[in-house]
Amino acid sequence: MKLGVIAANGKAGRVIVEEAVSRNIDVTAIVRGENKTAAKSMIQKDLFDLTYEDVKEFDVLIDAFGAWTPETLPQHTTSLLYLSDILSGKPNRLLVVGGAGGLYTDSSHTTRLMDGKDFPEAFYPLASSMSDSLDALRKRSDVNWTYVSPAADFRADGERTGDYLLRGEEFSVNEKGESFISYKDYAIAMIDEALSGKHVQERISVLSK
């Protein structure tokens, strides 16, 4: 399998590349600047300048792009739509590093985690923009996408336990009533999905045991 990781220099991107390299997967970092990852191959290009010619060799593209400021938050949606247009009707798969705020808290899938009264107000704009991007992605039946949501507590410096729980659209907790996962364990789940391709055109979620 050939794998490309967009925004590979970011926190999530770098850990995903490291996990792929540790499994001897042929991985290429797609970055705007110098390659700061463990990948030996790189494409130096902005996401919005990519063409299908740039990515056609990759069986799977992992999109680890993130935007954090008020003026850039809409790029969560515009970037996914751009990549969807590139991959429209193509066999390549697109895996997206998603957010947890849009996970449903009811079986009817009408209420989201971010709609709860205890959801941190400071995180709402980011959660809302990422949820909007998933809504846009759901409309693309012409793309082999998979959206991977982390647990509510996504720990950049957490340890690699080597294990995780795979869940679906609904917010869930482990046996201790906790919802967290480290970037390193999330990367394991992401690479597992890249290899298996079991959840095309689905949102899945992962958390630590």
From TrEMBL:
SUPFAM superfamilies: NAD(P)-binding Rossmann-fold domains. It holds the Pfam family NAD_binding_10. One of its GO terms (molecular function) is oxidoreductase activity, acting on the CH-NH group of donors, NAD or NADP as acceptor. Residues 8-168 form the NAD(P)-binding domain. InterPro entries: NAD(P)-bd_dom, NAD(P)-bd_dom_sf, Polyketide_Oxido-like. It comes from the Bacteria. This is NAD(P)-binding domain-containing protein. The lineage of its organism: Bacteria, Bacillati, Bacillota, Bacilli, Lactobacillales.
